[in-house]
Amino acid sequence: METGIILPTCYLPPLSWFVAIVGNKHGEILIEKFEHLPKQTFRNRTHIYSPNGVLSMSIPVIKGSKNHTQVKDVRISYEYNWQKIHWKSIESSYRSSAFFEFYEDDFRPFYEQKFEFLIDLNESLNETLFKCLKLEKNYGFTSEYFAEYPNGIIDFRNSIHPKKESPYLTESYYQVFENKHGFIPNLSIVDLLFNQGNRAGEILKRSAQLTK
Predict the structure, then answer these.
(1) 3-state secondary structure of 198
(2) Is 58 a member of any domain?
(3) Which residue range is the domain that position 161 belongs to?
(4) What residues contact 69, with CB distance under 8 A and at least 6 apart?
(5) In a domain, 173, yes or no
(6) pLDDT tens digit string along 130-139?
(7) pTM of the model
(8) Looking at the domain assignment, is residue 212 inside a domain?
């Protein structure tokens, strides 16, 4: 791989993750599988727009997976019913959005079945997300770990991060609770999908043309 982009695996990825894919003109797209799982990242957490503002939801992983386990081997913990909590939070946040009812049957099953590995859940969700967005899922996976990549490859593993400013601008769109808290950029892709429906893909494509 001489040119392209490297992305982290993400749980219900932020808009910036999708914008990076849609706007990619640099060659191959690869998802990192061999890094050690970093703490407090989008790899196992997502941000949605709740009635009280940004709500961070994280998937618990089995003890020992947080430090020295490769992402491909990270197992999900079910010591408490986080699936029920996540789905109830999604429902309370988006039940009144224009398109939630249209898509809820696509996403509810992910909160009723159990996946052993985090990356399998993330990728199964992505299959559904790309289908709903009517976008081509055109990426592969790394075959080994590199701490750094040459200049021809854009590395988003650390820049797409909950505590960092998004590497992309986001075209604004209507959000259910924006009258309370204003427009919040770079939330989970489901925020865009549930609020904008079949217009979501076009918003991503236009956002990919914006520059900072």
Answers:
(1) helix
(2) yes
(3) 4-207
(4) 36, 37
(5) yes
(6) 999 999 999 9
(7) 0.95
(8) no
